[in-house]
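Continued from yesterday's entry.
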Amino acid sequence: MLTICSSYVKMDGYINLRTASVGPHLCFRSFISRNFLIPRYCPGSTVTKISLPISLAYWEQCARWIIKILSTVFPCIKACASETELPNHIRILSNILQHYMLSTFKKVLISAPVLLKSFREEGLWDLIFSEKIFYFGSSLECIHQIVGETETQTDHFTDAAESTGYKSNLPDVNILQSEAISFLEFAATLNENTNNLPECSALLSALEHCTNGPGLVVTILKSFHVILKLATEQTLVSFKSLDVLTRVLKVACLQAQELRKAHPSDDFRGNGSQSNNVQMDSLDERIKNALTCVELAFNLFKEYVTISDLGRMIILHNANCIGCLFDLFQEENLRKHVLEQVLALYRLPPSSAQDHTAKLQLCSKYLETFTRAKEHEKNFAEMSIDLLVTLREIILIDRAYYQNLFRNGECFLHIVSLLNGTFDEAVGEQLVLNVLQTLTSLLAENDESKAAFRMLVGVGYQTLQSLLLDFCKWLPSRKLLDALLGMLVDGTFEINEKTTIKNEDVIILFLNVLQKYFASTLWACGLTAIAQRVHYK
């Protein structure tokens, strides 16, 4: 073995570049074939189990020794690179070494899965996913120069990417990177692998290091989906230990930020078109893959909380993960789905003081989203309406509990401040209606909340009255008056039924709005009709 390997590595540890220029793939393949007894590649063949009887100890020693040698060879290859690229003959050597290393070690794992432990101990994942290999560019055309039967070989190399469900035809994803991801995915889903944390960790590290290449991020995320599907039990444990979801969502947030920087005035829709009706196929490949990356990351989150019995409770106690979730709320194509996941967190019954604290933090984060939407988004009115509608759904889960929880999170200040602004009539009225309806839900049948709101806006809700009068530059609709009447009775006002006034502060608010916008005769008639239908509690 030393004789064969000397074609590549001298005694002092440097590469013999002259050998590399006259067919390095032949020497390395010969070495691998003799020591692992791997049959010569035939067109159309795939990676299969080695059937010849070989000592497991021999395999292990060979594998360890080869990893040590390659750990010396690849840094030397990288040292030969200039600032721009490798010399052609060295690039050939690098590509061939990488390809045969990956295919050989995968074949060894198929035949002897127990050697996975040895691979880990020798740092194989660190070697493969390092700047010497994974982040060290290689060219498919270069491989074609070396390996005969170009068309057939291309199909063979591309097979490695198919397990991730993603073809590596993108400028930021090459064939060898796809083979590396495929190999790691295979190791993580081995039946004999009861703890795939090292593999998940290596893949996660690769994900965090390649955020500038959305195509590569997409490939890695698809591999995570495969691993979670094929090795669910051990992967759930690994995800929890590594906090995978938070880190994946952070990558998605980075991709979303890049999208907004690249197209600050664009509004990306979930149907693949912008608000200006420019079709998705007019976007460049990186933009499309960045959008796919964000969606895949969020889908991985949904998959996890759906599969795991404790998944949502773990998320509830993970402030960083929740923060990333609300960051993705800014993406219109995900907004509805994010709110669905947030609502599911609120449905979790609190069973401890820690759960209560986590729910309070969730409420605070929810309310902060109003402020963030107003400060950073042009369409914050629509976003605020979505948040208000979901907030009313949350209150319905457990009215008294969530009224108190949101009150402690200073919900009234966040909600009333939404009326500070200028809007067109249609959007403005919808926002006012939703603000009043949400305040009604938060105040209904809760004297403590009513007292807290009165302290904030004054007796008779003077501050709210001023905001409404300034906000409504147009004639108030019947819906607005109905919303005020609903606030008056802590629910829905029915004109044909006797109703009890349950919130006296709204009386002055309602009368002043009515007096400002309606003629005195109509105003008097309205008061008479209302007086006949309501009485004090």
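--- second protein ---
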Amino acid sequence: KGFAPLLGLILSIAGLCAAEKASRIPAEWKRQIDKFDAFYSENDDGEMNSEGYPGIYMPLMGNGYFSHSKGVRSDTYFIAGVYNNETTSPSIRARIPATFAVQVENSETTGTLLDIRNGTYYRRGNLVSYPGSWYELRWYAHMQRRNIYVMELQVFNAGKQAVQLKLTNNPGAPTDAINFHKKSSQFFLTQCGNTTIPETPEISTTRVCMVSSN
């Protein structure tokens, strides 16, 4: 009997927390969650570990050919069939530095969504310097044109002044798997190079080229 009031209080607090969290989920996201088409989290702001990966569990983004390893905050891309070592088990994939491991500076993450039906990852956040304004980032690997990886940014401006954003990328250390040569223009970054170690002495190294927007 002595524990009943405390138990009731704990249950009430838990109920309030759950209701408060549910109220923060955007309505269009909640519809997807209710159909079991998506998973929600309040943020993905965990610290990066010594290997350049998020210290929290993150969904791998990919399409069977391209992979943003360990989630959209990690510094590594992989491509199917592109290795950088002599044939061994396990094999070693050639690491490509990420170009779209993007964070919005001076912002506060308000929610993330993994849409498993459409293979898309969403992040929303408030812009601290622009009260009432917020952004949405979207990442997905194209399901038909499998060599295309997309990151979209949409900004919702609640004020009258123009919004300026600073985006930072997490490419990690330069790769030693591919001898990339870079060429940058106002809008695009082109990187081409060969893997440094062939899988067997009888075959040549693999040519890799990548174009991304600046």
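The longest strand covers residues 107-115. The radius of gyration is 21 Å. Will compare against the first tomorrow.
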